[in-house]
Design a protein that fits this description.
The chain is mainly alpha-helical. It has two domains: 78 residues, no CATH class; 120 residues, no CATH class. Helix content is 46%, strand content 7%. The strands form two sheets. Strands 1-2 form a two-stranded antiparallel sheet. A two-stranded antiparallel ribbon has the order 3-4. The longest helix has 21 residues.
């Protein structure tokens, strides 16, 4: 933004942070960093003034406490910008425990599952949001997951039916780019919707033999026309595609872990387990 150019003026809603959970702190810090860029706050005095404007209540008390503590210590000899960044990290540690980024990444990689009533788009948006949060954890050099790791999470979170379909089609998701993999999972999602609407695929019936059952190996009774009242048992051997065999899972209630940064001060991140209906 060029302050001297009227055409570059903008309107911005400032977020006031008093206290809250870890995710609230991260969202505030993201908004503050954006303000720093848009308003070209380069001087430590300007940054401190803006921080004091946007922090209130308990959060402001944390800021003043840690600023005084570092000024009283040897940190006072550090450059003002570096000192301010250390204080901001100290405030962040009041809401996010040290080394929490490792726990957050662990659960992002292994604890996320895509439920039937959550769309791929919604899942991907939330996953990318959590990934952006990682850059604002109170670490010295926080890093977010790369796109290959995001693809791995998507592949791990998919429904069992989708895995069967991918195996049957010989699909290698890791040969795709991030955009291609998301598009492919959306195609699987659309095919599943169509299957739900149309119902299961019709069963093939051999008129010369017994009626074919959709369950492999289940005994089916059949009247013998030559012996009145006598019932013989025939075992069906028709094998349906794996994806169709797993179709019964569609009717089961799926549970999805909706990740969020822990809402209370804790040493571990919290994932709320909710059933999607």
């Amino acid at each position: 933004m060029d302050p001297s150019n009227p055409a570059s003026k903008y309107a911005r809603h400032f977020i006031i942070f008093k206290d809250g959970c870890a995710e609230d702190w991260v969202k505030w810090l993201m908004a503050y960093r954006e303000i720093e860029t848009l308003m070209t706050l380069n001087e430590p005095a300007d940054k401190s003034k803006m921080v004091r404007t946007l922090l209130k209540g308990q959060a402001l008390s944390y800021f003043e406490h840690h600023l005084k503590r570092r000024l009283d210590a040897e940190d006072a000899e550090l450059p003002d910008n570096m000192l301010l960044e250390l204080v901001m990290r100290d405030v962040g540690l009041e809401y996010i425990p040290k080394s929490a980024i490792r726990v957050q990444k662990y659960y992002m990689r292994r604890g996320l599952f895509l439920g039937h009533n959550m769309t791929v788009q919604t899942f991907v948006e939330r996953l990318n949001e959590l990934n952006r949060y990682l850059l604002y954890f109170p670490e010295e050099n926080p890093k977010q997951l790369d796109q290959d790791e995001i693809i791995e999470i998507l592949d791990q979170a998919k429904a069992p039916e989708w895995h069967a379909a991918m195996v049957a089609a010989n699909i290698d998701i890791f040969s795709m780019t991030y955009e291609e993999s998301v598009a492919y999972f959306k195609q699987l999602e659309n095919l599943e919707k169509i299957r739900r609407i149309n119902g299961p695929a019709p069963l093939q019936v051999d008129n010369k033999k017994s009626v074919v059952s959709s369950t492999v190996g289940v005994a089916v009774g059949k009247k013998n026309p030559r012996k009145c009242g006598v019932t013989t048992v025939t075992k069906t051997t028709t094998i349906r595609p794996i994806a169709e065999q797993l179709q019964r899972l569609n009717s089961a209630k799926m549970v999805i872990l909706r990740p969020r940064l822990f809402p209370e001060k804790s040493h571990w991140l919290f994932f709320s387990k909710k059933s999607i209906r």
